[in-house]
Amino acid sequence: IERIFAFDPNHDPFAELFEQTRGLTPFTYWDPPRDWWFNRMLRTPQPLQERIALCWHDHFATAGGKIWPPMRLHSQIDLFRRAGLGSFRELLVAVGRDPAMLLWLDGVHSSKGAPNENYAREVMELFVLGEGHY
């Protein structure tokens, strides 16, 4: 159990691999991007970190069909990997500022004078309090 929890959430053992490929993105070699993540989950020396990232990705549901470019999803998964075992409040604030989530919930259509209510409603209803409780 100690070994499972003994990892630095800010250290990515896979980062060195991608530095060796001359800066190419993880998605260069895997199509679709989820195959890259599945491969990573199978080979990681930090399985709890990947399991937590998958759990939060399921909770804060986003998908590639509406999010472009795909690297935004990769960045979001990295967010879950780094912050997944920390404070839910801090994770929620970070997800609320995440470009993939802003695209997913149409937050990019908000402006100071005309906020997109869908974003706030979805965050509160789907991710925090539950349907009918906000």
Architecture blueprint of SSEs:
Elements (H helix, E strand, L loop, with lengths): L1 H4 L9 H6 L12 H11 L3 H13 L11 H13 L4 H9 L2 H6 L12 H12 L6
Helix pairs in contact: 4-5, 5-6
Summarize this entry quickly.
This protein has helices at residues 2-5, 15-20, 33-43, 47-59, 71-83, 88-96, 99-104, 117-128.
Biggest β-sheet description:
none
Q: Which structural class is indicated by helix and strand composition?
A: mainly alpha
Q: How many DSSP-defined strands?
A: 0
> Please, what is the average pLDDT?
82
Assembly status: single chain
Envelope shape: globular
Properties at a glance:
134 residues, mainly alpha
Your description of this structure?
This protein is mainly α. Helix content is 55%, strand content 0%. α4 (47-59) packs across α5 and α5 packs antiparallel against α6.
